[in-house]
């Protein structure tokens, strides 16, 4: 039977966690920045539909 030595202490270091969180936040902020730069098409006029009052029913 062969024994494997576990060299990991099971705890993450504070520096490693900080670096990973900074990288994650940078990636998220970069994605938000590039999505903001994309010019999505928008309607030129307001869409308005008049609903007659006779279609409303009071539900108790």
Give the beta-strand count.
Answer: 0
Q: Whole-Å distance between the termini?
A: 74 Å
* Mean pLDDT across residues: 81
**Rounded radius of gyration (Å):** 28 Å
| Tally of helical runs | 1
Descriptive account of the structure:
By secondary structure, the chain is mostly helical. The chain has a domain at 11-44. It contains one helix and no strands. The chain has one helix at 14-37. The model has no long low-confidence stretch (mean pLDDT 81).
Short description:
The chain has 60 residues and is mainly α. The chain has one helix spanning 14-37.
Topology:
Layout: H1 14-37
Supply database-style keywords.
60 residues; 1 helix; 0% strand
């Amino acid at each position: 039977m062969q024994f494997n030595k576990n060299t990991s202490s099971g705890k993450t270091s504070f520096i490693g966690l900080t670096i990973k969180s900074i990288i994650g936040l940078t990636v998220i902020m970069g994605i938000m920045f590039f999505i903001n730069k994309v010019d999505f098409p928008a309607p030129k006029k307001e869409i308005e539909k008049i609903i007659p009052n006779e279609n409303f029913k009071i539900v108790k």
